[in-house]
Amino acid sequence: MEDSSRRKFLQNAGLASLVSISPLAAEPERVSELFIHHVLFYLKDPNNAQDEAKLLEGLKKLAKVPQIQYVNIGKPASTSRSVIVRDYTFSWMCFFKNIIEEELYQTHPIHDEFRKDYAHLWEKVVIYDSVGPKKVS
Q: What's the rounded Cα separation, in Å, for the pair 82 and 110?
């Protein structure tokens, strides 16, 4: 079996196993919903350019997790309305086909390595997870 075919087979087998043991298997509508994972990172030392560069390095590595469909690494915009939160260092927003893909991301070795190697840089994270239809009519 060719290496790429074997890898694809193993990924599909892993996904099939997760679906079979997941409580989500009984909720097919949730498997078809787009999953968005949005994290705001707050550095311990927000004025430290080296820490900021290091966290950005880590986020770029994290973006290589194969389950991610789209990722955006952002900084606070210069907008200034009272309802806008601008006190974070980085915004990390990624899109997944469904919640199962996001669960695979949460346990992926790249994600585990990211937390292990970079968590010492932030004082807190705020996470917003949301689901919705893949297309809005």
A: 37
